[in-house]
């Protein structure tokens, strides 16, 4: 199996200086903490406290996904996924990484599954155009609503809309076009499923939304669209074996976390992920939520008023590097930049020699786009090193279900290590709740009237400050 690799020399003091890079002494000093954290994580996992780490081995879950895929596949031309945050970003990341860029535009014969639309917010324009597109094909449209409780306002509103559409167009048979992925025991959505008779998959107990990509939450849409989810989990399991080593220099997640934490101590409080592959852009977006929501918390145990994994955490696509390099080279030196690199693309794509007579373009003639994108990545890496900006590189030998599975699992476990180093809980999200409650208040949900009153001064625009 191809194995993902982590290259960190350009985040070391040898490359960018002791002020901005990690020294060998610092890694030796942190090594005992990593050993303790590795041991503690193993104990927590055995006690069932790190449920996400066992997902690659959950055969019952995988079989349930395959069962639903077999049930829906032949009667599905369009799959609509309703979710938000971790219930959506993982689905999007898998689809964009492992299916062609033009997947939704391909003919039914050429596509490996149904068209896929993941609605991860409540933008009415986005929702309406999807509704208009699928309505003529509603009989062969399957709606997968994802929510642990079913009470999150955004997903609940989406579900009400699409359930109503299915009811109006399909009558009493509408429920045959709904699959709910939800809590196995309780919650509003589970109650609705039981009452109306929807087919269901389970959101795994003890796994937060941003860690669910390797569960039924992310795997159903992937499998429906022809992605080999068994190979995806095989890759995650292969990475899991590598992450059991307590030696910081042999464990990629521990090393990634150690370098990130040590550089945070040196003021590198912003994490940037820069994928040199369009297919990997949404993996960077998935990382952004995982890292920020897990680690963007005030650390009350430190003497200084710092934040772990301070936001903004920015994910950049392959078209953004030239426009951002000015900021990263000459702006504040407060970032750790991680490149995502593909060693072997599925296509090299030769650059024609038809402009060979143009002196300023002659150097491109007969080369290829794979060489060009590799050169651009190394050039950016060099330029940043010259400005003493620390960088790391995660290299995928090629983009495949196995290497993508390795990537996802690597960063999930790295977050666990980071939580231990910062002495915070990376699995909760206390700061998120106020925003949810404020939405409930503004939408008139019972029990939130007092909060609605507090929000009114913010909701009302003061003309003095409006230009």
Task: Outline the structure in words.
Helix 3 packs parallel to helix 8, helix 4 runs antiparallel to helix 11 and helix 9 packs across helix 14. About 5% of the residues have low confidence. The protein is about 45% helix and about 10% strand. Strands 1-12-11-7-10 form a five-stranded mixed sheet, sandwiched between helices. A five-stranded parallel sheet has the order 3-2-4-5-6, sandwiched between helices. It has about 475 residues and is α/β, with parallel strands linked by helices.
**Helix share of residues?**
40-55%
Q: Give the helices and strands as they follow along the chain.
A: EHHHEHEHEHEHEHHHEHEEEHEHEHHH
What does the radius of gyration come to?
24 Å
Gap between N and C termini: 59 Å
Structural class, by secondary structure, is alpha/beta
Strand order in the sheet with the most strands: 1-12-11-7-10
Tally of helical segments: 16
């Amino acid at each position: 199996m191809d194995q993902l690799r982590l290259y960190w020399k350009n985040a070391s003091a040898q490359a960018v200086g002791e002020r901005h890079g990690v020294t060998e002494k610092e890694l030796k000093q942190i090594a005992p903490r990593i050993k303790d954290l590795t041991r503690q994580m193993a104990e927590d996992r055995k006690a069932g406290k790190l449920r996400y780490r066992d997902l690659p081995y959950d055969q019952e879950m995988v079989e349930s996904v395959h069962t639903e895929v077999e049930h829906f596949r032949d009667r599905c031309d369009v799959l609509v996924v309703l979710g938000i945050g971790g219930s959506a970003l993982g689905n999007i990341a898998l689809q964009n990484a492992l299916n062609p860029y033009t997947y939704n535009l391909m003919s039914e014969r050429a596509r490996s599954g149904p068209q896929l639309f993941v609605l991860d917010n409540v933008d009415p324009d986005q929702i309406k155009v999807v509704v208009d597109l699928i309505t003529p094909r509603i009989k062969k449209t399957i709606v997968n609503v994802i929510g642990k409780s079913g009470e999150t306002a955004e997903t609940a509103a989406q579900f009400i809309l699409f359930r109503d559409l299915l009811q109006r167009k399909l009558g009493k048979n509408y429920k045959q076009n709904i699959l709910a992925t939800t809590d196995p025991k309780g919650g509003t959505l589970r109650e609705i499923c039981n009452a109306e008779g929807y087919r269901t998959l389970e959101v795994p107990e003890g796994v937060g939304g941003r860690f669910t990509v390797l569960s039924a939450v992310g795997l159903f849409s992937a499998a429906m669209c022809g992605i080999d989810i068994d190979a995806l989990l095989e890759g995650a399991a292969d990475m899991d074996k590598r992450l059991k080593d307590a030696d910081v220099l042999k464990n990629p997640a521990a090393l990634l976390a150690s370098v990130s934490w040590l550089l945070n101590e040196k003021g590198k409080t912003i994490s940037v992920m820069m994928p040199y592959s369009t297919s990997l852009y949404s993996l960077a977006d998935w990382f952004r939520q995982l890292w920020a929501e897990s680690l963007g918390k005030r650390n009350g145990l430190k003497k200084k008023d710092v934040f772990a994994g301070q936001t903004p955490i920015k994910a950049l696509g392959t078209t953004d590097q030239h426009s951002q390099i000015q900021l990263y080279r000459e702006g504040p030196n407060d970032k750790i930049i991680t490149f995502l690199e593909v060693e072997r693309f599925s296509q090299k794509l030769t650059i024609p020699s038809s402009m060979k007579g143009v002196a300023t373009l002659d150097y491109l003639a007969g080369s290829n786009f794979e060489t060009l994108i590799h050169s651009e990545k190394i050039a950016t890496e060099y330029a940043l090193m010259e400005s003493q900006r620390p960088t790391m590189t995660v290299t995928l030998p090629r983009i495949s279900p196995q290497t993508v599975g390795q990537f996802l699992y690597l960063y999930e476990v790295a977050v666990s290590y980071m939580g231990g180093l910062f002495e915070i809980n990376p699995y909760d999200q206390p700061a998120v709740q106020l925003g949810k409650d404020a939405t409930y208040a503004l939408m008139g949900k019972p029990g939130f009237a007092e909060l609605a009153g507090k929000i009114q001064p913010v909701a009302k625009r003061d003309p003095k400050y409006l230009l």
